[in-house]
Each structure stands twice: as structure tokens, then as C-alpha cells.
């Protein structure tokens, strides 16, 4: 696939927060080089250094955005020998560190079509700080790409097999049991699992009450369509807007109530005797 003449949109995702001027500084670098581009701030509240959370948010968000350049900076290895990369996938370009941050999004966009190391210092802001590559490398390169720079101008091509990849979330279905893990937790305390609705069907877990095995114990939880499928303050399993099964609490914080963190193993099976999502409260199993 050839490079487009440019992009109208550039998205920006970081762990910089909003208390300092880092985000505005990067906006300035982008607009200096691509003044016509529209910048979409995905979030700058990724927990500091949490590459997995950044990768998860980017993978869920990028396919919902217009074709564009996605500059993503969650980079605990800034200033080290880790590479910087620009990846083309599904009509989009992703720019950031080669630490696993971009791969899930590239796959969600249809797969990696081309990848180049960002190694052309002529595209960077100088002098380059050892601690602020978002300002000095990623924002400028993303802007030049949005303005129509061919991807090949960023540096040498890399085989996609050489890119750093994060461990894939646990995902197994067999013997009437769906085995997953907490994939992400949002600000409301909803626990998105690494399981899809079809995984529950494959594990012979029909809609109704399901038995949830987690590090803190075992519970019988209703399966519903909305948060309001159960009473206020009661837990429910449902399919979230990204298509994943989520453990939620109507008006509450499921992560806190169940003592869950990202990466915790979660197993789901049919509860003995089934159940009705309208019954509400989870039942702790002995």
C-alpha cells in the first residue's frame, strides 16, 4: 500500500497527565510542522509507565477514529537503547516506542503492513533530550507523517517479527470452563476480562447465573445486558462496548468489591442450577 498524501487527524495518547506542560509542548511541536492537522487527545491519564494500559486503550480507540497518525508515548525506557518505530496498519500510522505499546492497536486495525525504525535525525527537534522523546522525536515525526511524509523517510524498514510484543492475556476455553484474566479496569471499576461472549457459550455457560473464580474467592454472579439488569450495588457480568465480558457493579466499583487488579486470573463456569439475571446479588460460594 502506498503512502497517502497526508492525514487530517493525529491522535495523541500519553501518561503525561495534565498538571505539567508536557502535553501542550507536544501539541506545539505537532502544529509547528502540520498546522492544518486536527489533534485528538485520546487520554493523558494512563498510569505512569503502564505500557499495557496504554496498549489496551489505543487498541480499543484507534479503530473508532478516522484514518490518521496515532502518536502514543508511554515510555519507561526513554533514553535507553529501545527503538522508536512508525507502523502502518489499516490506513493508519502509529508512532511510538518499540516496547509493545503499538502492536495490539496495529492488529486491531487489520495487521501490520509496514514498519520502520525512526532513525532519521533530520525529522527530530534538536537538541534531543534523554527524557522527553515525546517532544523531540514522536510529536515531530508524527506531524511530518500527517503532513504527507512517506513512511520510508523515517528510517530503515523492520520486519514485524522483530517488534517487542506484550504477553497476550490468558484466554482458554475447554472442559466447560472459560479461563481468562482481568484485561483492564476503567475509572468506574468495571473489570474488562480477556473473554468474549462466544467464549462463555463455548464453555457451556448459558445466560443466567455464572460461577466466577477469582483470587479472592468464588461467587455466583448474574449475566445481564446492562448495569441495571441487577439492583443498585449488585454485581453483574455483561458484554461491554468493546465486545469483552466484563465484571461490573451497578452504581459501584467491581474491582474494589472483588479485590481485583489487572492481570488477575478469572475463571467462569455455569452455576449449578442456572439462575436469572434479575435475581441480583452475587452469592459467595463456600
Automatic annotation (TrEMBL):
S-adenosyl-l-methionine hydroxide adenosyltransferase N-terminal domain span: 11-155
Q: Which domain of life is it from?
A: Bacteria
* InterPro entries per UniProt: SAM_HAT_C, SAM_HAT_N, SAM_OH_AdoTrfase, SAM_OH_AdoTrfase_C_sf, SAM_OH_AdoTrfase_N_sf
Alphabetically list the UniProt keywords: S-adenosyl-L-methionine
Q: Which residues form the S-adenosyl-l-methionine hydroxide adenosyltransferase C-terminal domain?
A: 180-266
Q: Which family does the record assign?
A: Belongs to the SAM hydrolase / SAM-dependent halogenase family.
> Which PANTHER family did the record assign?
CHLORINASE MJ1651
What is this protein's name? SAM-dependent chlorinase/fluorinase
In its UniProt entry, the species of origin is given as: Lipingzhangella halophila
Amino acid at each position: 500500500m502506498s503512502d497517502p498524501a497526508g492525514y487530517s487527524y493525529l491522535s495523541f495518547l500519553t501518561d503525561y497527565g495534565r498538571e505539567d506542560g508536557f502535553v501542550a509542548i507536544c501539541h506545539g511541536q505537532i502544529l509547528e510542522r502540520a498546522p492544518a492537522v486536527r489533534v485528538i487527545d485520546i487520554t493523558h491519564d494512563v498510569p505512569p509507565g503502564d505500557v499495557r494500559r496504554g496498549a489496551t486503550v489505543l487498541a480499543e480507540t484507534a479503530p473508532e477514529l478516522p484514518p490518521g497518525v496515532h502518536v502514543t508515548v508511554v515510555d519507561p525506557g526513554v533514553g535507553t537503547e529501545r527503538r522508536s518505530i512508525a507502523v502502518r496498519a489499516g490506513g493508519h500510522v502509529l508512532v511510538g516506542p518499540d516496547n509493545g505499546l503499538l502492536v495490539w492497536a496495529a492488529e486491531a486495525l487489520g495487521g501490520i503492513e509496514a514498519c520502520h525504525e525512526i532513525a532519521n535525525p533530520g525529522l527530530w527537534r534538536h537538541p534531543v533530550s534523554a527524557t522527553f522523546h515525546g517532544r523531540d522525536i514522536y510529536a515531530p515525526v508524527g506531524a511530518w507523517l500527517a503532513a504527507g511524509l512517506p513512511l520510508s523517510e523515517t528510517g530503515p524498514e523492520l520486519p514485524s517479527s522483530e517488534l517487542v510484543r506484550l504477553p497476550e492475556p490468558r484466554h482458554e476455553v475447554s472442559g466447560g470452563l472459560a479461563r481468562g484474566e482481568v484485561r483492564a479496569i476503567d475509572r468506574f471499576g468495571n473489570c474488562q476480562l480477556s473473554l468474549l461472549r462466544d467464549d462463555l457459550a463455548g464453555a457451556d455457560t448459558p445466560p443466567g447465573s455464572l460461577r466466577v473464580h477469582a483470587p479472592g474467592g468464588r461467587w455466583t454472579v448474574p449475566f445481564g445486558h446492562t448495569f441495571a439488569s441487577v439492583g443498585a450495588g449488585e454485581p453483574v457480568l455483561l458484554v461491554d462496548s468493546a465486545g469483552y465480558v466484563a465484571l461490573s457493579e451497578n452504581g459501584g466499583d467491581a474491582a474494589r468489591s472483588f479485590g481485583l487488579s489487572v492481570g488477575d486470573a478469572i475463571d467462569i463456569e455455569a452455576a449449578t442450577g442456572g439462575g436469572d439475571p434479575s435475581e441480583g446479588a452475587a452469592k459467595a460460594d463456600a
